[in-house]
Amino acid sequence: MCNFAFNYLQNRNMKEKIQTLVDTAVKGIQEKKGHSINVVDMEGMEGVICQAFVICEGNSPSQISAIMDSVEETMRKELKEKPVRTAGTENCIWVAMDYVDIIVHIFLPEARDFYDLETLWQDAPITEIPDLD
After folding, report:
1. Which of 37, 85, 90, 126 has the most CB atoms around its CB within 10 Å?
2. C-alpha span between 79 and 98 (Å, rounded)
3. Considering only CA atoms, which of 102, 43, 115, 50 is closest in space to residue 71?
């Protein structure tokens, strides 16, 4: 197989893997009624630490904790993936779950407004996921 074909297949497989991670994280978020979900696609951007951010909100620290648990369980059961690190569980104002290729951010609305992660990479495409009723 020539280098071009190998690189193409490898790139396509990576995109599929990232999309699967994102879709599964979104499913876990929606299980606990997380809302205002945005996916920031950072593929190919310089200086980024992952390929995508999945950003959402919960209405209270207890809901943020429940969303975090749901994402972790859904990722583990469906993909056999565990976060390499989870931060922010002490106060559940902003929880970040690092899955290497994607990072899931779960915010209280005030913290999300303050940190405004969606605008850090202004050139990155953002996909808004509709809230479930």
Report:
1. 37
2. 15
3. 102
Tokens 């209405």, residue located: 59
What sign does the dihedral 123-117-60-104 (CA atoms) show? positive
Does domain 3-129 bear CATH number 3.30.460.10?
yes
Residue pair 51/79 in contact by the 8 Å Cβ criterion: no
Cβ–Cβ < 8 Å for 75, 81? yes
The reported pTM is 0.90
Which tens digits make up the pLDDT trace of 3-42? 544 444 456 688 899 999 999 999 999 999 999 999 999 9
Residue 22 and residue 79 in contact, taking contact as beta carbons nearer than 8 Å: no
